[in-house]
Specification:
It is built from 1 helix and 21 strands. The chain is mainly beta. The protein is globular, with a radius of gyration of 16 Å.
Amino acid sequence: MSSNDNATRQIPTRAAEIVREYGPFDGAERIHGVTHDGQRVWAATEANVLAFDPDSGEVVRTLDCAAHAGTAFDGTHLYQIAEARIDKIDPATGAVVASIPAPGNGGDSGLTWAEGSLWVGQYRDRKIHRIDPATGAVLRTIESNRFVTGVTWVDGELWHATWDGDDNELRRIDPDNGEVLERLELPHGIGVSGLESDGADLFYCGGGSSGKVRAVRRPKSATR
């Protein structure tokens, strides 16, 4: 969004505090998406979705299902981007119970659940869509001025991740107009492939080809 360019430059940038790294995990060359179910962190690794204990770092469950990008949890089911669709998955069995089309038709990235809807990042188109989880219909769209590689909501705050070269960030944006409100700059060379809050003070960030998941401390903002 070109109108955000000046606003972005005026926002003070803070260094992201990486508090822990997990992985690489056996058999997982890449991390494509992450979510948190209140106890475990789930990570999409292309051939499967694995869950690990954030305290011990141990993998506690693996679901054999296609997992090419973002992952989300609605309190009961997992949602997983697989090619150009979003699969609704029973986390107890790994069974796909429903599928809807992804709005980016294969160009989708981040995924999260909030307010009864799925929120989907559309990577190179630099958009975040709110979609109907039953039909995939796009309900509204927010534009960004950088690639969108992860999206999450926490305490009414909408955050998205960027991965565009070696200088990347987590950014809090205004959900009404996409204006950048806060930026966390990651160390040079570290990108984010998937983003999810734990509902408290951490963000979990997929590490792409590093095969890692990183926990980043959520800053105390003016809204808290």
